[in-house]
Amino acid sequence: MPVQKFAIADAHFERLDEQEALIETANVVDQRHGGPVTVGFGRYGPGAVLEEVIAVYDTMIVLEGEISITSNVGTVTAEPGDIVYMPEGERVTIHASNNGALTAYVTYPHWEEARASHYADRRR
Amino acid sequence: MPVQKFAIADAHFERLDEQEALIETANVVDQRHGGPVTVGFGRYGPGAVLEEVIAVYDTMIVLEGEISITSNVGTVTAEPGDIVYMPEGERVTIHASNNGALTAYVTYPHWEEARASHYADRRR
Q1: pTM above 0.80, yes or no
Q2: Residues of chain A neighbouring B84 (CB-CB closer than 8 A)
Q3: Chain A contacts of B71, Cβ < 8 Å?
Q4: What's the CA gap between A123 and B7, in Å, rounded?
Q5: Which stretches within chain A are classed as H helix?
Q6: Are strands A49-53 and A23-29 parallel, antiparallel or unpaired?
Q7: How many domains does chain B have?
């Protein structure tokens, strides 16, 4: 893949999980493209909540709205232009504001592969 | 390093190079923190130009202003909310608009280490 620009209008959003209808992700670069990182946009509906052990190094940049992230060191609230850094292995609860939120993300390694492996492990 | 939020007001900007006074970077996460990625904010003065062979996988998110990136596949222009993906090894010219630009970036691996190594090689 060469140098590329991605606008939100280019993104194809998919629901994160069946039970989490209010959260959608849109990878624009991922394991299909041969590089080490996944890049994309995230869309959180009003009040959406995601509880998860982060399976990758996940960096989010808030583009619209507001999200709060609770971890073992407390809660931070991020607004447009803020960066949230979530290291692998951290247990977090991500909570969107009443207006929802739009984010950009970069993960190392690829979050879909890591997450699939994590959930496969849990099913054993 | 635990989960953390970084606002632009937390960032400590430094000039990228002596000859590039109009471009400043502010790492908020890097090789000092034990993870695989460097995360930070970039600030481009009006009309600032950076020509470089990208030494890492570099993802930029435009927060304010506008930048154009010229590579071997042409020129893309990115506005607030847009993502620019620049794979390792690509030769790019980054050009800020007349109002300058503010960006967030995530690089894998750490750009300062890769860039120092690249310039050391060139001096031999």
Answers
A1: yes
A2: 3-6
A3: 2-3
A4: 38
A5: 111-123
A6: unpaired
A7: 1
Determine the structural domain holding residue A64 and report its residue range.
Answer: 10-123
- CA B50 to centroid of chain Cα atoms: 10
């909570």: which residue's tokens? A95
As a whole-number percent, the residues of chain B with pLDDT over 70 amount to 94
Q: Would an 8 Å CB–CB cutoff place B111 in contact with chain A?
A: no
Q: How far apart are CA B42 and CA B29, in angstroms?
A: 13
Q: Is the ipTM of this complex over 0.95?
A: no
> B36 in a domain, yes or no?
yes
* Model confidence pLDDT, tens digit, residues A43-55: 999 999 999 999 9
A32 located within any domain:
yes
pLDDT tens for each residue of A55-64: 999 999 999 9
For residue B2, being part of any structural domain is answered with no
Q: Would A26 be classed as within a structural domain?
A: yes
Contact assignment for B104 to A61 by CB distance below 8 Å: yes
Report how far apart, in Å, the C-alpha atoms of A92 and of each of A48, B3, B25, B57, B64 are: 14, 8, 29, 26, 29
By the 8 A CB rule, do A34 and A106 touch? no
